[in-house]
Every structure is written in structure tokens, then in C-alpha cells.
């Protein structure tokens, strides 16, 4: 007996191919959509990370700035500020001629290693700090171990009776600061060493045609350092001044009136997707100076 075998007809094959094509097309479209979504979200996360990381870096320095004369210079376009940042604190033991002897608290060796001495500041009777910047702060005018430690630790007349403090295996230092300090500096008045740090938004090396946040410690051997990038051209500093309720883009006539900053950080992603442009996430951080006279 002859057995007949039936296969697929041409019409059935064509219908199957069409159905498979539709399913494959829909699946491919879904994969592409998911890939675009993933890329878009990755770019958004990157842009937010750029802005948030820059915020964390800036806050550490900006909050240490004194609220009177802590800002050294600022540009009209809001792209650059130079600030005087304290990094070590202590008390005045006495002043003789052009030498001020100070008792400084112990400090972490990493802090000292990353800081560049630019000058010192002594608090006056009004509660503000008088800044002194020696002519050669990194060479001949650098603080040195005092030749008269009894001026700080002694109990006799004209001696400050300040005990040297130790903490975590580190001991404070008694130093002579070779510069003409403020006249009439009071014994036991707070004093700090400071460094000049410039923050600026300028052309990035890592991301051409974009802005980067740069940090430059005056006198540091490595020069300016590109911290974070990329940023949009709208990145800038805005200023809070004494008596104002909001920040302003205009640089105050008196830099000593600046009490804080708005830092506008429009972080960008390195690239966009095939349909979307480069992602941007803007974070505006308000930072008010911590060393204030009154609250």
C-alpha cells in the first residue's frame, strides 16, 4: 500500500515567514528601545555623579573659609574664585618684632602634606581675622620650630602658659612665624595657617569642547588639577552678600561682604544616544562660610 506524505504548502511557508518576521521585528524593536533606555539612564546617572562629586569636593574647602576677607578674588563671569582656606589652627604665644610665636594643634600628616603655607591669620577683638601674607611663604618665611618654647609653655611673666596638646600619637608644635603680624595681637588669640586655592571652570583636557572644574593650590608643585568634567557652559559661582536674601551673579564691590556661594553645577554625560542629546543634570549647592563672627 502506498503511503502519501504531505509537506507545507507554499502559502503556509509564506505565512510562517511573515509571522516570524513580524515577531522578530517586534523583538528587535523592543531590544533597541531597552538599549536606548539603558544608555539614557546611564548618561543621566553619569551627569548627576559629575555634579555631586564636584559638590563634595568644593564643600570641604568652602565651608572653612572665613566670612570676612576669605574670598581673595572673583571674576565677573562667575567662572573663577580664589579663596583663603585654613588648614591648621592654634593660639598666639607672643609677638616680638617681625616674629610671631604660636602654639599649633596637632594635625594629620596627610593634611600637612597636601597643604601649602601661604600665610597666617590672627583673630582680633572685633571677632574677625587679620590676614598676614609673608613675602616668601614657601622658602625663607616658612614657619620654623621656635627658639624660645618657654614663651608658650612657661609660667613666668610675659609667658603664655599654653600647654602643648597631643592627640592620636601626634603632638602640637611651637613655631615661629617669620612675618610682621598684626599689631597688638593678643596672647592666646586664635590663629590659623591658610593656603590660597583657586577654583575655576575652564576648558577640559579630558573632554574637549567642555568645561571642567579645576583646583589650583598656590605654590603647589603640580600646578592646577582637573577635578571633574564635563560641565555645561552655564557652570558658575554666584554670591551671597551681607544683608542679602538671595544670591547674585554680580561680584560685590567689596569681596569682604561675601558670606557664601551658590555653586551651579550642570553636569553632562560624555555622549548622548542615537535619539537623545547629551544628558544634563544641574545641581545648585548653597555653601555658607563656617568661620563666622556671629550667628
Radius of gyration, rounded? 31 Å
Instruction: Provide the succession of SSEs.
Output: HEEEHEEEHEEEEEEEEE
What shape does the CA trace take? elongated
Give the uncertain stretches in residue-range form: none
Structural class: alpha+beta
Share of residues in strands: 25-35%
Main beta sheet strand tally, sense and closure = 10 strands, antiparallel
Report the mean per-residue pLDDT as an integer.
84
**Quaternary status of these chains?**
single chain
- Helix residue percentage: 10-25%
Total of DSSP H or I helical runs spanning 4+ residues: 3
SSE layout and pairing:
Blueprint: H1 10-62, E1 71-74, E2 80-96, E3 99-104, H2 109-114, E4 119-123, E5 129-132, E6 144-145, H3 150-153, E7 166-167, E8 170-171, E9 173-178, E10 190-203, E11 211-217, E12 225-231, E13 236-241, E14 258-268, E15 280-288
Antiparallel strand pairs: 1-2, 2-3, 2-10, 3-9, 4-5, 4-10, 6-9, 7-8, 10-11, 11-12, 13-14, 14-15
Could you explain the architecture of this structure?
The protein has 295 residues and is of the alpha+beta class. It has a domain of 113 residues. Helices cover 21% and strands 35% of the residues. It has 3 helices and 15 strands. The strands form 3 sheets. Strands 1, 2, 3, 4, 5, 6, 9, 10, 11 and 12 form a 10-stranded antiparallel sheet that branches. A 3-stranded antiparallel sheet has the order 13-14-15. The longest helix has 53 residues. The chain is elongated and about 125 Å long. The chain starts with 9 loop residues before the first helix and ends in a 7-residue tail after the last strand.
Amino acid at each position: 500500500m502506498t503511503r502519501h506524505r504531505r509537506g507545507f504548502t507554499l502559502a503556509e511557508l509564506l505565512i510562517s515567514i511573515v509571522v516570524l518576521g513580524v515577531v522578530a521585528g517586534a523583538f528587535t524593536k523592543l531590544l533597541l528601545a531597552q538599549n536606548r533606555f539603558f544608555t539614557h539612564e546611564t548618561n543621566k546617572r553619569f551627569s548627576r555623579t559629575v555634579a555631586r562629586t564636584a559638590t563634595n569636593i568644593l564643600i570641604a574647602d568652602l565651608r572653612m573659609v572665613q566670612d570676612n576677607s576669605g574670598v581673595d578674588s572673583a571674576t565677573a563671569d562667575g567662572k573663577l574664585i580664589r579663596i583663603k582656606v585654613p588648614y591648621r589652627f592654634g593660639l598666639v604665644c607672643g609677638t616680638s618684632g617681625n616674629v610671631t610665636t604660636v602654639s599649633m594643634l596637632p594635625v594629620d600628616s596627610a593634611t600637612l602634606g597636601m597643604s601649602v603655607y601661604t600665610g597666617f591669620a590672627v583673630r582680633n577683638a572685633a571677632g574677625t581675622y587679620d590676614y598676614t601674607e609673608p613675602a616668601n611663604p614657601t622658602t625663607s618665611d616658612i614657619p620654623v620650630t621656635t627658639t624660645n618654647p618657654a614663651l608658650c609653655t612657661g609660667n613666668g611673666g610675659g609667658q603664655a602658659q599654653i600647654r602643648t596638646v597631643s592627640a592620636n600619637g601626634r603632638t602640637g608644635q611651637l613655631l615661629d612665624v617669620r612675618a610682621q603680624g598684626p599689631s597688638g595681637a593678643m596672647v592666646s588669640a586664635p590663629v590659623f595657617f591658610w593656603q590660597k586655592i583657586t577654583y575655576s571652570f575652564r576648558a577640559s583636557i579630558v573632554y574637549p569642547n567642555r568645561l571642567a572644574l579645576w583646583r589650583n593650590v598656590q605654590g603647589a608643585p603640580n600646578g592646577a588639577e582637573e577635578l571633574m568634567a564635563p560641565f555645561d557652559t552655564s557652570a558658575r559661582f554666584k554670591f551671597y552678600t551681607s544683608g542679602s536674601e538671595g544670591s547674585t551673579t554680580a561680584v560685590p564691590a567689596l569681596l569682604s561682604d561675601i558670606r557664601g556661594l551658590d555653586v551651579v553645577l550642570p553636569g553632562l554625560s560624555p555622549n548622548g544616544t542615537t535619539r537623545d542629546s547629551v544628558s544634563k543634570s544641574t545641581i545648585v549647592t548653597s555653601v555658607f562660610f563656617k568661620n563666622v563672627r556671629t550667628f
